[in-house]
Amino acid sequence: MRKLVLKFMAVCTGALIVSCGSGKNMLSISSLDGEWNITEVDGQQISTGRMPFIGFDVAQKRIYGNSGCNRM
After folding, report:
1. Residue range 14-35, pLDDT digits in tens
2. Could you tell me if 45 and 51 are in contact, meaning their C-beta atoms sit under 8 angstroms apart?
3. Which member of 9, 25, 38, 51 has the lowest number of beta carbons within 10 Å of its beta carbon?
4. Do residues 37 and 52 make contact, with C-beta atoms less than 8 angstroms apart?
């Protein structure tokens, strides 16, 4: 599950970098604020009792999450 969270963080970071390349489609950092459920990985649905998530607290400048059994 740790790899799942790391892959998701890498995708989010990549999306932020790509969005910074164009002023027209640029996302604001505040649009990431809150918790995001991870529902699929590599095209496969996640089927666990506790859904993994990643959260962004923009005001406190922190990232947190849970992969089902591990927290970060």
Report:
1. 666 655 555 566 667 778 888 9
2. no
3. 25
4. yes
**Average of per-residue pLDDT across 32-43:** 86
The amino acid at 46: I
The contacts of residue 50 (CB under 8 Å, 6+ apart) are: 66, 68
Cα separation, 63 vs 47, whole angstroms: 24
The span from the CA of 12 to the CA of 10, in Å, is 5
**Which residue did the predictor score with more confidence, 3 or 19?**
3
Q: Where are the domains of the chain?
A: 2-66
> What letter would DSSP give residue 62?
E
Residues 6+ apart with CB under 8 A from 56: 32, 33, 34, 36, 62, 63
